[in-house]
Amino acid sequence: QLRLVESGGGLVQSGGSLRLSCTASGFSLERYAVGWFRQAPGKAREGVSSITSSGSDIRITNAVKGRFTISRDKNTVYLNMNGLNPEDTGVYFCAAAVDWRPDYFGEIWEKLTYDYWGQGTQVTVSA
């Protein structure tokens, strides 16, 4: 089955760090752009960060800019989270989309209909 597998979530104190991983199962992420999203209880899902298939275009939402970074290797996309605070608590999802137009992806990544979604991993930051 084609799916994304996430790992790295957990409970961390304010100021702590976590690294989330998103790995493709049944296909390769090499030709896919990837976005990270999160959803806090009672809130809408929001975009966190994205990266094109080549890694040439990276987007980071203002809420986490300077604290989170995104990177990728052959079949894994990472979200490195530093300086976590309780507002970062939520379920984090990764999503992959065939990167037909890398030059456009960075402009539409938050609203794009993705081809695959991960199951989500819980990130809880205590005060």
Q: What would you note in describing this structure?
A:
The chain has one helix and eleven strands; from the N terminus they run βββββββββαββ. The protein has one helix at residues 102-108; strands at 3-7, 10-13, 18-25, 32-39, 46-51, 58-60, 68-72, 76-81, 90-98, 116-117, 121-126. A hairpin with a 6-residue loop joins strand 4 (32-39) and strand 5 (46-51). The strands form two sheets. Strands 2, 4, 5, 6, 9, 10 and 11 form a seven-stranded mixed β-sheet that branches. The model has no long low-confidence stretch (mean pLDDT 96).
Q: How are the SSEs placed, and which strands pair?
A:
Layout lengths: L2 E5 L2 E4 L4 E8 L6 E8 L6 E6 L6 E3 L7 E5 L3 E6 L8 E9 L3 H7 L7 E2 L3 E6 L1
Provide a concise account of the structure shown.
With 127 residues, the chain is mainly beta. The chain has one helix and eleven strands, in the order βββββββββαββ. β7 and β8 form a beta hairpin.
Features:
127 residues, single chain
Strand % is over 45%
Compute the average pLDDT. 96
- What structural class should be given to the helix and strand makeup? mainly beta
SSE ordering: EEEEEEEEEHEE
> What is the helix fraction of residues, given as a range?
under 10%
Number of DSSP strands?
A: 11
**End-to-end CA span:** 39 Å
Radius of gyration: 14 Å
Give the overall shape: globular
Which parts are unreliable, with pLDDT below 50 for 5 consecutive residues or more?
none
